[in-house]
Amino acid sequence: MNGKSIALLSYIPVIWILAFVLYLDNRTKDSIARFHLRQTLGLQLMFIAGSIILGFFRVYFLLFPFELACLALWILGLLSALKEEEKPVFYVGEYFQEWFKNFIR
Q1: Would you give the end-to-end CA distance of the chain in angstroms?
Q2: Is the dihedral of CA 43, 49, 52, 58 positive or negative?
Q3: What's the confidence (pLDDT) of residue 28?
Q4: Which end of the chain has less Cβ packing within 10 Å, N or C?
Q5: Which ranges constitute the DSSP H helices of 10-59?
Q6: HSE value, Cβ hemisphere, 13 Å, CA-based, for 68
């Protein structure tokens, strides 16, 4: 599989693990796939952790806006993958690249 296909697959939350395995199996290690795997891993972890924290503290009035913001970032990342760009999502994308650089090489 080419890098664009792996990058697009990574934006499907349940399929992310398959995209990661395909990336590891790919001999060329495309930078576009690596970039978007890091972005989606960060977005998914941010969504899960934020939802758990807001739900635990029962701050339900912030839960919907938070999930809406996560959806907007996910859409921006997906559009970037469709255009084959390595454009980080707003504000948090650079952090995801730094945090996950040793996990996804």
Answers
A1: 17
A2: negative
A3: 64
A4: C
A5: 16-25, 31-56
A6: 5
Residue 101: how many CA atoms within 13 Å on its side-chain side?
6
Which has more pLDDT, 2 or 50? 50
Q: Are 11 and 40 in contact (CB under 8 A)?
A: yes
Element at 4 (helix H, strand E): helix 3-9
Q: Can you tell me the distance from the alpha carbon of 45 to that of 83, in angstroms, rounded to the nearest whole number?
A: 24
* Nearest partner of 89 among 5, 11, 24, judged by Cα: 11
Instruction: Retrieve residue 16's tokens.
Output: 């992310």
Instruction: Read off the pLDDT band of 45 (50, 70, 90).
Output: very high
C-beta separation of 67 from 51 below 8 A: yes
- The vertex-12 CA angle with 35 and 75, nearest 5°, equals 70
